[in-house]
Amino acid sequence: MTSPNQVPNRKEKPLRKLIAIFTAATLSLGLGACASGSNEQFAGITSTCDALTGGSNVDKIKVEGGYGTVPVAEFETPLTSDKIESKILNEGSGPAFTGDQFIELDFMALNGATGESLQATKFDGTDSVSQSIVSGAYPDFCHALSGAKQGSRIAILFPASFAHESQGNPESGIGKDDSVVYVIDIRRVYLPYAVGTAQPAESGFPSVVRAANGTPGITQLKTDAPTEFKVSTLIKGSGEVVAQGDKVTIHYSGFVWGGEKFDSSWDNGQPAQFQLSQGQLIEGFIKALDGQTVGSQVIAVIPPAEGYGDQAQGSIPANSTLIFVIDVLGTTKPAN
User: Fold this and answer.
1) What is the 3-state secondary structure (H, E, C) of 205-229?
2) What are the distances in angstroms from CA 10 to CA 253, 266, 269?
3) What is the pLDDT of residues 29-40, one digit of tens each?
């Protein structure tokens, strides 16, 4: 999207350095209750990553403090392994992480060779990190966390080859042969795509098809573009209702009526997060999401007056009618 004041440009490459993966997207403060789907909504979702595995080396890490408290980790150094090892210290009761989705977490990172602290959040929710965890990235958190539930605390041991491809990160105090230890609290797991009840197709909208991973495509109508805003629910989710002022987590694809796709979060494998408020997004995008439920997929047709008007935006010509297919993956309410 070119955000709606600008739907953001999401062409950045996945972060591959050790610490960067958990510092790329820090949560905004001042947000309250959040909803990302019930356990039932996650029940039929298949994991895209190999399930986490334990080992004798991660068992050597002793962690004091339970979920939601500042951990104190101790282990003899140097500590390493020839594979990624994970251990669930406290098991939560929320939905399980299955890969290629957003999670919110607190973390502490330690140098496994020296025991020195590398970086940590406060473990009180004020500086938790919101991050898309995808398969095939380094470090491979997708495998390290796969199957862990929301509300869990996990210890992870990454050998150098899996932590930073044995390249090290001198600025972070990591040598090329250094392993890395993490203690992670999974605060929240988001849906990877829309999950709910399919709704009857409405006339006047392009038809939508979905790949196995949820990626949508459309068949354009060979008619003149509508002159008024309209939105239709394709999948009805059973989660919380989205309202203006919320911070929403979505997947989206945007198309020009009668033209081509101009942007999609699916192309980068990362959902987007927006504050649903005036000045942040184009008016039609806000209208499309206001009142929807978590788990839903909607298609919205946005005329120029509620889109970009007579201004061209990148590959979007001036006076374009826009089509958005949006999956609602989670919402966070403003703090009272």
Assistant:
1) CCEEEECCCCCEEEECCCCCCCCCC
2) 12, 10, 10
3) 334 455 556 677
Q: Residue 133 in 3-state DSSP? A: strand
117-120/72-74 β-pairing: unpaired
For residue 29, give the H/E element and its range.
none
Domains of the chain listed by start with CATH number: 46-189 (3.10.50.40), 197-334 (3.10.50.40)
Read off the pLDDT of residues 171-218 as tens digits, 9 standing for 90 and up.
888 999 999 999 999 999 999 999 999 999 999 999 999 998 899 999
Copy the structure tokens of residue 117: 């602290």
Q: Which pair of structure tokens corresponds to residue 104?
A: 């919110």
315: closest CA among 261, 249, 234? 261
Kindly indicate the confidence band of residue 46, based on its pLDDT and cuts at 50, 70 and 90. Answer: confident
Tokens read off for 281? 């997004």
**129-150 residues labelled b (16+ CB within 10 A) or e (exposed):** bbbbbbbeebbbbbbbbbbbbb
% of the chain surpassing 90 pLDDT: 76
- pTM, to two decimals: 0.85
Q: What is the DSSP letter of 162?
A: H
Q: Which residues, at least 6 apart from 225, have a Cβ–Cβ distance to it below 8 Å?
A: 257, 258, 301, 303, 321
Q: Report whether 293 contacts 238 (CB < 8 A).
A: yes
Whose tokens are 């002793």? That residue is 62
DSSP string, 153-199: EEEEEE-HHHHSTT--BGGGTB-TT--EEEEEEEEEE--SS--SEE-
